[in-house]
Amino acid sequence: MSLRYFDLRPLDYLTKELSALWWFYLLQGIGLILLGIAVVIFPQLLAILAASCFIAVGSDLLVLAWRVQQVKRRYESYKHHILKI
């Protein structure tokens, strides 16, 4: 079987997309290692970080819930207007 029958373009595309942000993954790894070291040196930092994450995620979810409700209301209004229900 000859290799000329294989189309490698999908693999080229996938490799290009996955490796485009290699520097971002590198920075995340370095940041997490430094954060782990900081938590070992200052254990109370873990509680502050956890609380900060909970507050940030909770705030994001509240905003998301509000936006989803707004989209639903707009959709219902448009549907009502178009169908003249």
Short description:
By secondary structure, the protein is mainly alpha-helical. It is 84% helix and 0% strand.
What can you see in these coordinates?
The chain is mostly helical and 85 residues long. The protein folds into two domains: 1-41, no CATH class; 43-85. The protein has helices spanning 9-19, 22-41, 44-83.
Task: Give the helix/strand layout.
Blueprint: H1 9-19, H2 22-41, H3 44-83
Strand content: under 5%
Query: What portion of residues is helical?
Result: over 70%
Instruction: Tell me the Rg in angstroms.
Output: 24 Å
Order of helices and strands: HHH
Mean pLDDT: 90
General shape: flat
pLDDT under 50 segments (min length 5)?
Answer: none
Distance between the termini: 64 Å
Please report the total strand number as a whole number: 0
Q: How many structural domains are formed by the residues?
A: 2
Largest beta sheet, briefly? none
- Output the number of helix runs: 3
Q: Which structural category fits the helices and strands?
A: mainly alpha
